[in-house]
Design goal:
single chain, six-stranded mixed β-sheet, 10 strands, binds adenosine-5'-triphosphate, binds magnesium ion
Length: 239
């Protein structure tokens, strides 16, 4: 074991992303982003529509590759990794919660929660099922474990998506407008769950939100405007 300090969950160094909008036309959407996220930090990513938030989350989630710069996940540089290594690193370290939950309608709720672990090659053991059920219990949906996602409300489905994102206890959870299509009450519930798991499991959370009220409930708010980070502030603790 080395005495080196634990690396940040995430470190971005001059990260750039261009999209090909024609040949040879390229348009740069992220213009050299520097950013660090510490373990357990609960951070809101805010900014106007089209500023590059989803693009940035896709890069951080290793779903897309930067045009330039480097992205360190748990201290590991990721630019040069091949697809297999990226998939393995993603599966082992990142949980995703999207605006539209992407649950698999053909499977039951419990199977949806188990999916990320099974996709990574985990065996469907009793212990794994127990953990999935515990998570469903925690999001208030244990009684719905055998149902199909379509039988649940939007807010309930989003809670299933959170349980799914947390099954493997990832050190980083990425959420892109997880409450965007929910009413205020369900949005509050979903957000409270993210916060609770952040405290219980110590996972860092980076959540895109357009809702200033929800952003104020994070530890830190970073502001992306026109592909540049223009603000980064801590939120004062509410008593
Ligand atoms: N696949 C793509 N090809 C070309 N341009 C793209 C692509 N994806 C996004 N863009 C452009 O990149 C910019 C940033 O888009 P992005 O989706 O990251 O914004 P956003 O901040 O998530 O916006 P919103 O708040 O509306 O979700 C926009 O100008 C968008 O048109
Ligand atoms: Mg977006």
């Amino acid at each position: 074991m080395s005495d080196a300090p634990t690396p940040d969950v995430l470190r971005l160094q001059q990260l750039r992303k261009s999209y090909q909008v024609g040949t040879p036309l390229q348009t740069e959407v992220l213009h050299g982003i520097d950013f660090r996220l510490q373990r357990g930090e609960f951070t809101a990513l805010v900014g106007p529509s089209g500023s590059g938030k989803t693009t940035l989350l896709n890069l951080i989630g290793l779903l897309d590759t930067p045009t330039d710069g480097e992205l360190f996940l748990l201290g590991r540089p990721t630019r040069a990794l091949d697809d297999t290594a990226r998939t393995a690193l993603r599966g082992g370290s990142i949980g995703f919660v999207f605006q539209f939950h992407h649950l698999i309608q053909a499977f039951g709720v419990l199977d949806n929660v188990l999916m990320p672990a099974l996709v990574q090659g985990a065996r469907r053991t009793r212990e794994l099922e127990r953990r999935a059920l515990d998570l469903l219990q925690a999001v208030g949906l244990a009684a719905h474990a055998g149902k199909r996602p379509a039988e649940l409300s939007g807010g309930q489905q989003q809670r299933v998506a959170i349980a799914r994102a947390l099954l493997t206890r990832p050190p980083l959870v990425l959420a892109d407008e997880p409450t965007g299509n929910l009413d205020t009450h369900s949005a509050d519930d979903v957000f409270a769950l993210l916060r609770r798991f952040n405290r219980e499991f110590g996972c860092a959370v980076l959540v895109v939100t357009h809702d200033p009220r929800l952003a104020q409930r994070c530890d830190r708010i970073v502001d992306l405007v026109d592909g540049r980070l223009v603000g980064d502030r801590r939120v004062a603790e509410t008593p």
